[in-house]
Amino acid sequence: MHTLSTRERKRISRAIARAEAKTSGEIVAVIAESSDDYLFIPLFWAALLALFAPLPMFALTAWPAVHIYALQLAVFAAGSLAVQWRPLRVALVPRAVKRARAHARAMEQVLAQNLHTTKARTGVLIFVSVAERFAEVIADEGIYSKVPPGIWDEVVARLSADIARGDVAEGFIEAVGQCGGVLAEHFPPGGGDANELPNHLIVLE
Fold first, then answer.
1. 168-195 tens-digit pLDDT
2. Do both 81 and 109 map to the same domain?
3. Among residues 54, 74, 91, which one ends one of the domains?
4. Phi first, then psi: what are they for 128, rounded to 5°?
5. Positive or negative CA dihedral for 17, 20, 22, 24?
6. pLDDT digits (tens, 9 = 90+) for 97-114
7. Does residue 142 sit in the same domain as residue 84?
8. How many CA atoms lie within 13 Å of 54's alpha carbon, on the beta-carbon side?
């Protein structure tokens, strides 16, 4: 995973604090190394390769069956070993599957980080899963009536581009600023606003 330094994490925390100072809303930033171990599909590819790799041996050699079976086992073992390398394992997974798993992880964090517990239901989750190069912004129900969903799509598009370039910290800081601006416009600060959710970047293993 792109490892964020202590300095970068502090910059993100300060960005959240600055944004929340101008709104009654709450911003939660979460980053995950990956949203799944993705072992099943890569092992399927290794098994498929092992199944078909010996076919030329049947046609082109006089190898006995026991040698061909041994080749199959060797191919499967090599393939299984190769997919232990996370970048290769993730690359073998269909994009739709990766997006579905990452979205599911993001939805889990809505509850795990208590986004739904703010007094006015005006929390926003900024979620990034690095292995999938996935970003999502999820707003609580108090925001729906005032903020068009397309606004968050713009934030996600820019954040995703930053992730693809490896600028994870800058991407988060910019996304926090954008979300803060939207919240400040529709949910200005009120008297006695409490900091209901954590301001620091939450890192999932």
1. 999 999 999 999 999 999 999 987 778 8
2. no
3. 91
4. -130, 130
5. negative
6. 999 999 999 999 999 999
7. no
8. 19
CATH of the domain at 114: 3.10.310.50
Task: Establish if 1 belongs to a structural domain.
Answer: no
Q: What is the domain extent for residue 122?
A: 6-36+94-204
Length of the chain measured in residues: 205
The answer to whether 79 and 50 have CB atoms below 8 angstroms apart is yes
Model pLDDT for residues 52-108, shown as the tens digit of each residue: 776 676 667 777 767 767 777 777 777 777 777 777 778 878 899 999 999 999 999
Q: How far apart are the C-alpha atoms of 60 and 2, rounded to whole Å?
A: 47
Give the whole-angstrom CA distance, residue 71 versus residue 80.
Answer: 14
Do 158 and 172 belong together in one domain? yes
Look-up: residue for tokens 């919240």? 183
Type of residue found at 127:
F
